[in-house]
Design brief:
The complex is a heterodimer of chains A (806) and B (161). With 806 residues, chain A is an alpha+beta fold. Chain A has 19 helices and 31 strands. In chain A, strand 16, helix 9 and strand 17 form a beta-alpha-beta unit. With 161 residues, chain B is an alpha+beta fold. The chains are: A alpha+beta (806), B alpha+beta (161). Strand 31 of chain A pairs parallel with strand 6 of chain B, so a sheet runs across the interface.
Chain lengths: 806, 161
């Protein structure tokens, strides 16, 4: 797809036109699911578990049922449907027991929200609290309470996932490369440490919301704030054993996703309420508090890394153990485990590698996909560890990284060979090192230190990620020409703010040779109208849908040329076109306009040929394979996007307070389709990564109650929290099979911000941090210890980001 | 109770319950859904509207309290089918991604620059700290404000390595 990417000829790709749907969003005209009201619509509310683990002894609905305006009440006993993306382990409503704080126990639909709320208050649930397992490292111990005693009998995808029945292990992914024992024998040094991070919340500004009507004859329509209409439809129909034609999923504007709206969430429960209420549409919108515990979060991680290094500084062996805290249900966590497993060494060449990655059930709100899909979490440990190894062997961390980075000819953990087209990680790293004057303090910085008494430090971190997706991931595009010669493009990929709508319009205009204002890509998704797309996740949309789009453009033009050839009495090879017409190459005066061709070319006598012009493009990921379950070997990566961050931080050596003076980030995006929008992704993702690094994280008490499900107690970055200076650099090593050479960068900016900060803080004041988030008090404590430590916060009973012991 | 108020220059007279918030009044009773709910607790700023010249979180104000007041919502920002100067600057600088915070953000900028026609970067950050944005990382929003107040004349850019 690269053959037409000569930058000097590009009119749309590589330029930065404004966002297609910006006007609607800036005026309040854009309709989100949360804005919608349907005739006769009921409002749903949910009674949630106040316990982490308990048996439901009884539910008294009698008072709620008598409340006027209540139209449907459901408990787990009414519903015999189980959901699950990869391990089918979750009842739509808790049946017999609850497995986490905030789990849905009873659902009510009523005429108004106020009545539904009152009904929930009137419901009494009798619980018998049972022992909970709250820390994933405790959950793998012999004799730990089992979150799912029936795990061995659950449906799964056995070619890919390995649930261990009779344990709390929802999946174990392995990777074996080379000979780990031999590798460690070659090592001059062996460096080992453990790194941890808590669960965090995605915080889309629009909370999860769904409206469903389940009409007679199982005619079902779902309006939802989901990322992936076809996955919602597919999993919904799997659960209810319905043909796909019975269910229509419509997705209007979506107020942010970040992975939290991938898969399927509240839609089945809301649908059951509608069915119970006689087919009236039912709306459920999560409160912000429910967003934290009824809906899923990002998994916590404990990552143990042991690295062997030769005398020359080359890594010769690395043993990695990942323990992912799934929470009560496997959802995406098992696939996060798989995808992180094959990526866990970062963009470094490890000749002998051994990895076991566990997904562990605990009695906590469950983990799902979150921008970066595991990489934000494990890169915290990995890039702090690379820093530690460099320190230990007495090498400059930049030089150590450069020496060990993947290069053309290197083999990844899964045995994939890197080529010069994969991307240029060295250029990314060198660019950010230059961007922060790494390895020295400038004269101005030295003067500032003297003046303020504060210490300035600089840190680096690399990152990489490939789309985490099935090897057969597919998509399609349908392009329809209107009778005025404009085109309407239908794609199944959802616009959740990432800007794909605009990028696709640019790609289509470029390939068609049309002005940009002649191309419209629809924003609203509708499974009855749009062609299939697997999911809006994984940073794969630009590449896969972009390629399908190019093929659709070619198809539309081919169809137009055929009709034009007849109309002009010429062979298609003698034709050319511009934005408005097709003409004969050697006689430009002989032409036919696209509007004349658009719905069938008509001769003066009324006779017509052709018919409406439509272009279809289909694309499926090429050349990928499942991973061998015993060795993890195979080809999982559609592409690799590389990047790096450099951070300059100023730390108060007395208090541990710190401030980011600058962050410089670089990514090899292949080709920036819309550089301003790439910059928007880079900065937005980086600040989201900074939230993870600085302040976000779930805090539980010892009974497993979530203590901070609000913006008061779970801060996210505001405008005042951004670094003083932000520099974004793009590297463009074309992706051979990417549209105009492009590859995805949606998730990547969030990855490895935290370790770059941790490394910069260490450089400034010597604090060795192994747990994120990094708060001033953590720096202060780590400065006092001066040695690599298991910090106090990693030892809390619940794996939280705050101790309840001190 | 009966309230009378002006919204975006138009007069309204409505019966509202005493516990109706301004946010629900706007969205559900009047259909002005441009004002968004992000938290319902006065923390995120998605429901920012301008009440008698000052920004408020509409989720923290009762409709009963705005009797006799003048309210401006995002629906009153564009005029005669044309984006306002602030909206145009947001568009030009790619200061919108998912768009869910944009309504409140634009109105906070409107109030800020009416108080302070040439705010410094620090003053812009302070002026917008009550409006959460999870997508943009704020930088392109700050650039849009600098542009609309005549303090920069070009877009922030990526560097090519």
């Amino acid at each position: 797809m690269l053959e037409h990417s000569d930058p000097s000829t590009l009119k749309h790709v590589g330029h930065s036109p404004e966002r297609q749907e910006a006007t609607a969003k800036l005026t309040g005209d854009a309709v989100y699911t949360s804005d919608m009201t349907l005739p006769g619509m009921l409002h749903a509310q949910i009674k949630k578990s106040p316990h982490a683990s308990a048996i439901i002894r009884g539910i008294d609905l009698s008072r709620a049922e008598k409340l006027p305006g209540v139209r449907a009440i459901l408990t787990g006993a009414d519903l015999d449907y189980r959901l699950g993306l990869y391990v089918v382990d979750k009842d739509i409503l808790a049946k017999g027991k609850v497995r986490h704080y905030g789990e849905a126990v009873v659902a009510v639909a009523a005429d108004t929200l106020a009545i539904a709320r009152e009904a929930v208050e009137l419901i009494d649930v009798d619980y018998e609290v049972t022992p909970a397992v709250l820390n994933h490292m405790d959950a793998i111990k012999e004799g730990a309470p089992l979150v799912h005693p029936d795990l061995g009998s659950y449906a799964t995808i056995p070619e890919v996932f390995s649930p261990q029945g009779g344990t709390n292990i929802a999946n174990l992914s392995k990777c074996r490369k080379g000979d780990i024992d031999k590798g460690f024998k070659e090592a001059e040094w062996i460096v080992e440490r453990e790194y941890t991070n808590p669960s965090v919340q995605h915080v889309p500004m629009e909370t999860h919301v769904a409206i469903v009507e389940w009409k007679t004859g199982d005619e079902i329509t779902i309006w939802t704030s989901a990322q992936s209409p076809f996955t919602v439809r597919g999993l919904f129909c799997y659960t209810f054993k319905l043909p796909l034609t019975k269910v229509r999923v419509i997705i209007p504007h979506v107020g942010g996703g970040f992975g939290g709206k991938a898969g399927i969430h509240m839609e089945p429960l809301v649908a059951c309420l509608s069915r119970k209420a006689g087919g009236r549409p039912v709306k459920f919108q999560a409160t912000r508090e429910e967003e934290f515990s009824l809906l899923p979060c990002r998994s916590a991680l404990t990552y143990k890394i042991k690295t062997g290094v030769r005398a020359d500084g080359r890594i010769c062996a690395q043993k990695m153990e990942m323990y992912w805290d799934a929470g009560a249900y496997a959802d995406y966590a098992v696939n996060v485990t798989r995808a992180s497993g094959y990526s866990a060494a970062g963009p470094y060449e490890i000749p002998n590698a051994w990895l076991d990655a566990y997904t562990v059930y605990t009695n906590k709100p469950y983990g799902t996909a979150y921008r970066g899909f595991g990489h934000v979490e494990f890169f915290w440990g990995l890039e702090r560890h690379m820093e530690l190894v460099a320190q230990t062997i007495g090498m400059d961390p930049l030089a150590f990284r450069r020496l060990n980075l993947l290069r053309p000819g290197s083999l990844t953990l899964t045995g994939e060979k890197i080529t010069e087209h994969t991307g240029d990680i060295r250029k990314c790293l060198d660019s950010v090192a230059a961007g922060i004057h790494y390895g020295e303090l400038t004269a101005a910085e030295q003067a500032r230190e003297l003046q303020t008494g504060l210490k300035i430090g600089k840190g680096l971190a690399t990152l990489h990620k490939a789309p985490a997706m099935p090897p057969f991931t597919a998509t399609a595009v349908i392009m329809k020409m209107n009778s005025d010669g404009t085109v309407l493009v239908n794609v199944g990929l959802t616009e959740i703010g990432q800007g794909s709508t605009t990028a696709f319009a640019q790609i289509a205009a470029e390939r068609l040779g049309f002005p940009l204002d002649k191309v419209t890509v629809t924003v609203e998704k509708d499974t009855d109208r749009d062609p299939y797309d697997w999911q809006t996740v994984a940073s794969k949309g630009l590449m896969l849908t972009g390629n399908a789009l190019i093929l659709a453009c070619d198809d539309l033009l081919k169809n137009a040329y055929e009709v034009a050839g007849q109309a002009l009495r010429a062979q298609p090879c003698d034709l050319e076109h511009d934005g408005g017409r097709i003409y004969i190459k050697h006689n430009h005066d002989k032409s036919v306009s696209f509007s004349q061709l658009s719905v069938g070319y008509c001769y003066p006598d009324g006779n017509a040929i052709g018919g409406p012009l439509i272009g279809v493009g289909r694309y499926v990921a090429q050349g990928l394979t499942n991973l061998d379950k015993a060795t993890g070997q195979g080809l999982p990566a559609l592409d690799w996007t590389y990047g790096a961050h450099g951070i300059i931080v100023e730390v108060n050596p007395a208090s541990g307070e710190f401030h980011l003076l600058k962050i410089c980030s670089a990514y090899d995006v292949g080709k920036a389709i819309n550089p301003d929008m790439v910059r928007g992704q880079c900065i937005g993702g980086m600040i989201q990564g900074l939230g993870t690094a600085l302040c976000e994280g779930y805090i539980y008490d010892e009974q497993g109650h979530l203590l901070n499900p609000s913006f008061t107690d779970n801060k996210i970055p505001t405008a005042r929290d951004i670094p003083d200076e932000i520099e974004c650099i793009i590297v463009e090593t074309p992706q051979l099979d990417g549209p105009f050479g492009a590859r995805g960068v949606g998730e990547h900016p969030m990855i490895a911000v935290a370790p770059a900060l941790g490394n910069a803080i260490r450089d400034a004041v010597g604090a060795e941090l192994t747990h994120m988030p990094i708060r001033a008090e953590d720096v202060w404590r780590a400065m006092g210890r001066k040695e690599p430590v298991e910090t106090w916060i990693t030892r809390t009973p619940t794996g939280s980001c705050r101790s309840v012991l001190l | 109770m009966k309230i009378k108020l002006t919204i975006n220059g138009a007069s309204y007279e409505k019966d509202v319950a005493e516990n109706r918030t301004l946010l629900r009044f706007l969205r559900e009773d009047l259909g002005l859904t441009g004002t968004k709910e992000g938290c319902g607790a006065g923390e995120c700023g998605a429901c920012t509207v301008i009440l008698d010249g000052r920004t408020v979180n509409a989720c923290m104000v009762l409709a009963a309290e705005v009797d006799g007041a003048s309210v401006k919502t995002i629906e009153g920002e564009a005029r005669d089918g044309k984006l306002s100067d602030i909206q145009q600057a947001f568009d030009r600088h790619h200061a919108v991604q998912c768009g869910f915070c944009s309504s409140g953000m634009v109105l906070s900028v409107r109030e800020l620059i009416e108080r302070n026609p040439r705010p410094s970067v620090g003053e812009i950050k302070q002026g917008l700290e009550g409006n959460f944005c999870r997508c943009t990382g704020y930088t392109q929003i700050i650039e849009a404000v600098l542009d609309v107040t005549g303090q920069i004349d070009r877009k922030g850019e990526m560097t090519h390595a």
